[in-house]
Design brief:
11% of the residues lie in helices and 33% in strands. By secondary structure, it is mainly β.
């Protein structure tokens, strides 16, 4: 497994692991019929896209979200960020909502911590091409930024965006485990960046993000 999903300014709270970068105050239906038709033309990889996300509980609403959509969740590990103690959860301890990417967790009695005190390492079979639900998005502050392989992606040809569900569906063969991408969106508490392999195009992403961020701030809080 080689997936490395990075989350900057992450909506869901505390630093969950080395892959989680917090730079701000906090951190399955198809979107259109045409998107569904276009996706059928993209051949799936021979092996399922298996990757992982490190996240934590959103301090505002108490929810855990993967942002990236999984077909199935194979492993969930609760981690105490200070002690680094790890607890493997059974399938009976969690339930995944593929409409919202919310992971509902009921901690077993042997874990001596509250849900808000823990981070979560989530491993699963990712949807191919990539699909993302932008948790906590403030829809009044402009469109999300979608950057793939160091370039600004075009809505309608590279991806579709369903504003009502805050769902981004890739219309090109985006492998979330291997390809470089960065997705940015604004919330009421800050800006969020969800990315994989961003160092490959670091300078390009920085310029694209800064331009997108300026457009968001021009709309005001």
């Amino acid at each position: 497994m080689s997936g490395k999903i990075f989350l900057k300014c992450f909506v869901f709270g505390i630093l969950g692991a080395a892959l989680l970068l917090c730079l701000a105050l906090f951190p399955s239906c198809k979107s259109t019929e045409q998107a569904a038709v276009d996706e059928q033309k993209i051949a799936a990889p021979e092996e399922p896209v298996v990757t992982y996300v490190n996240t934590a509980v959103n301090k505002a609403d108490g929810k855990i979200s993967t942002v990236m959509l999984f077909n199935s969740i194979k492993e969930v590990v609760a981690i105490h960020p200070i002690s680094r103690v790890r607890y493997n959860l059974s399938e009976a301890d969690f339930k995944y909502d593929s409409d919202t990417t919310e992971l509902k967790v009921v901690l077993p009695k042997n874990i001596p911590y509250k849900l808000n005190d823990l981070a979560f390492h989530i491993v699963g079979e990712a949807v191919y091409p990539g699909v993302f639900v932008l948790a906590g998005i403030d829809k009044g502050r402009g469109e999300p930024g979608v950057f793939i392989e160091g370039k600004n992606s075009v809505e309608g040809s590279d991806y579709s965006y369903d504003k009502s569900s805050a769902r981004i569906t890739s219309l090109i063969p985006l492998n979330v485990d291997k390809d470089s991408f960065e997705i940015c969106w604004a919330t009421k508490n800050g800006e969020v960046t969800f990315s994989n392999n961003p160092q490959k195009h670091r300078d390009a992403y920085m310029k694209l993000y800064n331009a997108w961020s300026r457009s968001v701030h021009m709309r005001g809080e």
